[in-house]
């Protein structure tokens, strides 16, 4: 089994460098425990790259990414670059990476941590025990479908887009959904609007066909409107939710909001060849440089890397358990602090997590 991995590390802007530093410290500890070696190559991206090179994604950075097994990304953006034209801004660097690496799936876990139930906008009895993953398709759908446009027809302005999915796009995302479910609670909810849309009819048909190879996984279909409601009413019942680009855009934000802790949410974006790991949150310019950012979302993103790229799920579980224990023991960064808990900074939080990895 592969034990050596090339990791492209792109800290970016704002709190990016601080939280990436934490994730690398945790990775070092886990690497020793499991006999893994990581070869890190650092790349400039976002505002940091604009300042050095004028380009939010310098070719050197893209090269590092393309030669890597996985990319660990912090965050980009900040006031300093807000007045640049859209295609020169830090965020453009991230969009270009996603496109260049042909990342077709976005995985966003949402998990309710018992000591943080208060942060959720939902009642504790509803949010308690939530442990789900939203898998969003990224290459197809109304985002890229042709024809698209705005024009004048019969003296009236019209705007239009095309919602389209190819069989192969649905197949590969469905396969990934069933694979993910196999290592979890073995349930997939496929979300569409098959009562209204032809494209959803195809989606449903293909998902059913792929399911034939995964008899051990339960499959249910749900309309997007119903799913949006059930996520609020009984979020515990979901395990893996798989859906198209636009429904996934909405549902993944909704699922993220369930737990109420931005600093706790990791993500992975997967392609045929590359994998990209980043926290959900942005560069948090308001607290950048203060050393108080919550590193957990980024550390959990590194844990996803250990599971998906390195295929060492035990290492990911170690990290997750350590984080659960740290929270149980009352340690909190400012964003998740509440009266009666111990306030710690980024470095202290990281050290407490490392102590508990064992
Ligand atoms: P984006 O950059 O993705 O558009 P945004 O600018 O709306 O997002 P963030 O940069 O994620 O949002 O920050 C939103 C708020 O959450 C800020 O007040 C920020 O300080 C806080 N925040 C975000 N991430 C963290 C974190 N890891 N630790 C502590 N606070 C955070
Ligand atoms: Mg931001």
Automatic annotation (TrEMBL):
<comment type="pathway">
    <text>Amino-acid biosynthesis; L-leucine biosynthesis; L-leucine from 3-methyl-2-oxobutanoate: step 3/4.</text>
</comment>
<feature type="binding site">
    <location>
        <position position="253"/>
    </location>
    <ligand>
        <name>Mg(2+)</name>
    </ligand>
</feature>
<keyword id="KW-0432">Leucine biosynthesis</keyword>
<feature type="binding site">
    <location>
        <position position="108"/>
    </location>
    <ligand>
        <name>substrate</name>
    </ligand>
</feature>
<dbReference type="GO" id="GO:0000287">
    <property type="term" value="F:magnesium ion binding"/>
</dbReference>
<feature type="binding site">
    <location>
        <position position="136"/>
    </location>
    <ligand>
        <name>substrate</name>
    </ligand>
</feature>
<dbReference type="GO" id="GO:0005829">
    <property type="term" value="C:cytosol"/>
</dbReference>
<feature type="binding site">
    <location>
        <position position="98"/>
    </location>
    <ligand>
        <name>substrate</name>
    </ligand>
</feature>
<dbReference type="Pfam" id="PF00180">
    <property type="entry name" value="Iso_dh"/>
</dbReference>
<feature type="binding site">
    <location>
        <begin position="78"/>
        <end position="91"/>
    </location>
    <ligand>
        <name>NAD(+)</name>
    </ligand>
</feature>
<dbReference type="GO" id="GO:0003862">
    <property type="term" value="F:3-isopropylmalate dehydrogenase activity"/>
</dbReference>
<feature type="site" description="Important for catalysis">
    <location>
        <position position="193"/>
    </location>
</feature>
<feature type="binding site">
    <location>
        <position position="225"/>
    </location>
    <ligand>
        <name>substrate</name>
    </ligand>
</feature>
<keyword id="KW-0028">Amino-acid biosynthesis</keyword>
<feature type="binding site">
    <location>
        <position position="249"/>
    </location>
    <ligand>
        <name>Mg(2+)</name>
    </ligand>
</feature>
<feature type="domain" description="Isopropylmalate dehydrogenase-like">
    <location>
        <begin position="6"/>
        <end position="353"/>
    </location>
</feature>
<keyword id="KW-0963">Cytoplasm</keyword>
<feature type="binding site">
    <location>
        <begin position="282"/>
        <end position="294"/>
    </location>
    <ligand>
        <name>NAD(+)</name>
    </ligand>
</feature>
<dbReference type="InterPro" id="IPR004429">
    <property type="entry name" value="Isopropylmalate_DH"/>
</dbReference>
<comment type="subunit">
    <text>Homodimer.</text>
</comment>
<feature type="site" description="Important for catalysis">
    <location>
        <position position="143"/>
    </location>
</feature>
<protein>
    <recommendedName>
        <fullName>3-isopropylmalate dehydrogenase</fullName>
        <ecNumber>1.1.1.85</ecNumber>
    </recommendedName>
</protein>
<feature type="binding site">
    <location>
        <position position="225"/>
    </location>
    <ligand>
        <name>Mg(2+)</name>
    </ligand>
</feature>
<keyword id="KW-0479">Metal-binding</keyword>
<dbReference type="InterPro" id="IPR019818">
    <property type="entry name" value="IsoCit/isopropylmalate_DH_CS"/>
</dbReference>
<keyword id="KW-0100">Branched-chain amino acid biosynthesis</keyword>
<dbReference type="GO" id="GO:0051287">
    <property type="term" value="F:NAD binding"/>
</dbReference>
<keyword id="KW-0520">NAD</keyword>
<comment type="similarity">
    <text>Belongs to the isocitrate and isopropylmalate dehydrogenases family. LeuB type 1 subfamily.</text>
</comment>
<dbReference type="InterPro" id="IPR024084">
    <property type="entry name" value="IsoPropMal-DH-like_dom"/>
</dbReference>
<keyword id="KW-0460">Magnesium</keyword>
<keyword id="KW-0464">Manganese</keyword>
<comment type="function">
    <text>Catalyzes the oxidation of 3-carboxy-2-hydroxy-4-methylpentanoate (3-isopropylmalate) to 3-carboxy-4-methyl-2-oxopentanoate. The product decarboxylates to 4-methyl-2 oxopentanoate.</text>
</comment>
<keyword id="KW-0560">Oxidoreductase</keyword>
<dbReference type="GO" id="GO:0009098">
    <property type="term" value="P:L-leucine biosynthetic process"/>
</dbReference>
